[in-house]
Amino acid sequence: MADYQIAPSILSANFAKLGEEVDNVLASGTDIVHFDVMDNHYVPNLTIGPLVCEALRKHGVTAPIDVHLMVSPVDRIVGDFAAAGATYITFHPEASSHIDRTLQLIKAEGCKAGLVFNPATPLSHLDYVLDKIDMILLMSVNPGFGGQSFIPSALDKLRQARKIIDDSGLDIRLEIDGGVKADNIAEIAAAGADTFVSGSGIFGKPGANDAHRYDTIVAEMRAQLAKVG
Ligand code: DX5
Ligand code: ZN
């Protein structure tokens, strides 16, 4: 089976007990902590910054932390997130004046780097920087809020991105973000994604017997992925 990774978006977690939520969602069989950073400027919402990332590391989280920057400008905050323990740092090309420079900066800080594509952003931004990229993140909603519906045109874009990655022979993850649930994750995997962000699709479904664990929904997602192979 492909190396599928599930990345719960903590945007939909209970922030009043965030450490416990992250421990529980990882113990339920997920792989990567998806960390949505919004600045009320690039997107019309305001969320969490490097202090919270650092707090999760101090709490004992050892899983990769996938920092999705929805901020503009980008560069000034990169070093802060690297110091706070980020594993991946991804950003939107529209939010950086110098995409190549920002990618170099992220790598120089010792993190893995990625570009994020809004639903209407063309993949051509990859053309001259593919060798500096560890993750391509396709948005299947417009960024800013959890709980939106999956935009179907993302499936075609996933197929295009999968071809770009496979043709390149490079080791690049293909992540999808927005409206991913147990009932569409198989179709999304079949289109080429290997890393699945899900916020409301996981945190909105606490277990019936233990309200703090997500084993049931994560197992359901894994079962759907197993059908794809
Ligand atoms: C949206 C964020 C997503 C969001 C996904 O701007 O980038 O990561 O939390 O939430 P769901 O899975 O609820 O669509
Ligand atoms: Zn995200």
Task: Describe the protein.
With 229 residues, the chain is of the alpha/beta class. The chain has a single domain (5-228), classed as Aldolase class I (TIM Barrel, Alpha-Beta Barrel). It has eight helices and eight strands. It has an eight-stranded parallel β-sheet. The termini are close together. Zinc ion binds at residues 9, 34, 36, 68, 177, 197.
Distance between the termini: 5 Å
Q: How many domains, in number, for the residues? A: 1
Q: Strand-and-helix sequence, N→C?
A: EHEHEHEHEEHEHEHH
The backbone outline, from C-alpha atoms, is globular
* Portion in beta strands: 15-25%
CATH architecture: Alpha-Beta Barrel
Ligands in the structure? Answer: D-xylitol-5-phosphate, zinc ion
Main sheet? Answer: 8 strands, parallel
Query: What's the pLDDT, averaged over the residues?
Result: 96
Share of helical residues: 25-40%
Low-confidence stretches: none
Query: Order of strands in the sheet with the most strands?
Result: 1-8-7-6-5-4-3-2
Labels describing this entry:
single chain; 229 residues; TIM Barrel; eight-stranded parallel β-sheet; 8 strands; 34% helix; binds D-xylitol-5-phosphate; binds zinc ion
Provide a concise account of the structure shown.
Helices cover 34% and strands 17% of the residues.
What order do the helices and strands come in, and which of them pair?
Elements: E1 5-8, H1 18-27, E2 33-38, H2 50-59, E3 65-70, H3 75-83, E4 88-91, H4 99-108, E5 112-117, E6 135-139, H5 154-168, E7 173-177, H6 185-190, E8 195-198, H7 200-203, H8 215-228
Parallel strand pairs: 1-8, 2-3, 3-4, 4-5, 5-6, 6-7, 7-8
The structure holds D-xylitol-5-phosphate and zinc ion.
